[in-house]
Amino acid sequence: QVQLVESGGGLVQAGGSLRLSCAASGRTWGSYVMGWFRQAPGKEREFVEVISSGGTTDYVESVKGRFTISRDNAKNTVYLQMNSLKPEDTAVYYCAAGARWYTRDGARYDYWGQGTQVTVSS
User: Which residues of the chain have pLDDT under 50?
Assistant: First the structure.
């Protein structure tokens, strides 16, 4: 069964850090593009970061210098290290996997996790 499971979310004060994990199972994920997206209450889903199978990354400008995506193909796991968190980072964070496109477009991803809540208090 193909599955992506996020973990690591929680409540943190502004300026704090969290590391999200996304464990993938059901197939070999090393060739997949892996992305993180988020959705805040009342807002549309937003691209956060993406990492290619070879380790190339892209990110939304609002997280520049604060968030870092990485992957461990041996563990079929992708991470999102989030530092200097701000209240506006509060959202449900989703992990996604895509077989073809290295892209910010969520519609091009094939698999999605259930999400993990990140809440940043001021």
Answer: none
